[in-house]
């Protein structure tokens, strides 16, 4: 028989445990009817962010830049340091995701957390997130096109790799990914499940081959080797630029947040999806980074190659094995781009649902056959292609698009976290940080501000028309358009996230 104290503890524990979570009731309480299908379970929600982060795609696509900007020291220890900072950002975002599990994600929560000028806070957060999402889709497609060309040149030595062909292949990739996203949510969820296993198995294969196959590896101290080939004389600045490798890899984990309206038990599974995706990516990414770094043979030759990580594979393993591993990398990049576009379209759908984009009535419409925002898919694809067009003539186009992705997304992450810090009566959801909430939020915002300034600065010297980092121009153009539009008309009609009525009223509007 239980003693009274034990019985009291048991009752208290059961009282503290949340009851069954009604996803539709939560959505209705935020003022929205259900228009999307809830097919994403905990693993699916985690899979979307894990696939977008995509350590294979991120590390391989930016490894060459890191070899010039800091070398092994920044690639290895920068990965560890930035991963920790991103965990702070992810935790602060996850707490907000638990409180506001909606496709509007960041811009919705910014509107709800602001004390004043809710419309303006929501407006700019949404546009920053939009340009960051588009940058992520564009950069991933561009990286995949680059590696596809590397594979083609290895398979057929007469193949001529050109910047123009990279842009054209990117266009084809975006077209195929848009077609895939046009079909049902069930298909997208299935593709994301496959992508997780592709990433994990591919990681194991690449690491094992790079560990076992080469006849020679670098010494343990090689991880501290520092290189600054950016053209800037200041070594600290050159090394700081190398942090872009890790920051670029860790973008897009807001995908779990954006998929909330399609996730079962979203108040718990969305925040858990964010944290698991970051944590697993941090550990597995470090393993992959070490495998690549210690496989380097001729540093100067490989750093100067058109695709440095490909040259590392060729020198360490031979052409045949390198081609097989390259197929794994290309597959990972294509999966990453697909997930990027999925997240991108959900942001467009939600932002348009509240009338915050030109032609909003188009972009928030849902296909009655597939239950997906088809028109938003094609808008995401078109905007992404526009962003990669400068790659036709600029050899720094990729790093510029990456910067647009990193800065746009992380600034949109920072706004609701900052607003939550100013709010004393924040009501957390089932997943929360307790008394550490504000401390974690302060660290997150500080890191985002520092990294955003860094990645808007020049990445190569001397600064010429072809080496210029056009990321500030791209970001400023979007913000200028958003500002002009805001003061011209939007501020009079857009007051932040729209409520479609009382919970019982919006429940009657459910389309599924």
From TrEMBL:
Cross-referenced InterPro entries: AA/rel_permease1 (IPR002293), Amino_acid_permease_CS (IPR004840)
Domain of life: Bacteria
GO MF annotation: an example: transmembrane transporter activity
Key words of the record: Membrane, Transmembrane, Transmembrane helix, Transport
Pfam family, one: AA_permease_2
Bilayer topology annotation: Multi-pass membrane protein
Record-level GO BP terms: amino acid transport
Spans annotated as Disordered: 1-22
PROSITE patterns for the chain: AMINO_ACID_PERMEASE_1 (PS00218)
Primary localization class, coarse: membrane
Gene3D superfamilies linked: Amino acid/polyamine transporter I
Any single GO CC term annotated in Swiss-Prot or TrEMBL for this entry: membrane
TM spans (from-to): 42-65, 77-100, 121-148, 168-189, 196-212, 232-253, 274-296, 316-339, 376-393, 399-419, 439-458, 470-488
Keyword Membrane assigned: yes
Location(s) in or outside the cell: Membrane
Protein name: Amino acid permease (GABA permease)
Species this chain originates from: Streptomyces zagrosensis
